[in-house]
Amino acid sequence: MIDDEMLARKLEGFSAERDWNQFHTPKNIASALSVEASELLEIFQWTRGQHGWQEIDAESSVRKHTEEELADILLYLIRFASLAKIDLQQAALAKMEKNALKYPVEKNRGSDRKYNE
């Protein structure tokens, strides 16, 4: 299995070989990340939310397209974090702890509301 650090090194090499580092500003990578996330959403744009996970089964063209968009998102995310020297795993764990305090189980179980008083 490849970890985030190995992917970051591979991305650094890929970018360096093509002399793309000059273009990898925070704004440009954040913009690319946003575009790729939008392309993921576009796959499901007209489904009105009625389709579930079964639509992304192993044999569907939706599955392949979804995999490609998720890979683009992951690669830009790792590239951004690498250049910013952010430990994504640590940041994710810290955010999960913050969310646990913000959304306590006793107030949020079974609810999709953003804030429960």
TrEMBL record:
It holds the Pfam family MazG-like. Transmembrane segments: none annotated. InterPro entries: dCTP_Pyrophosphatase (IPR052555), DCTPP (IPR025984). One of its GO terms (molecular function) is nucleoside triphosphate diphosphatase activity. GO terms for biological process: nucleoside triphosphate catabolic process. PANTHER family: DCTP PYROPHOSPHATASE 1 (PTHR46523:SF1). This is Nucleotide pyrophosphohydrolase.
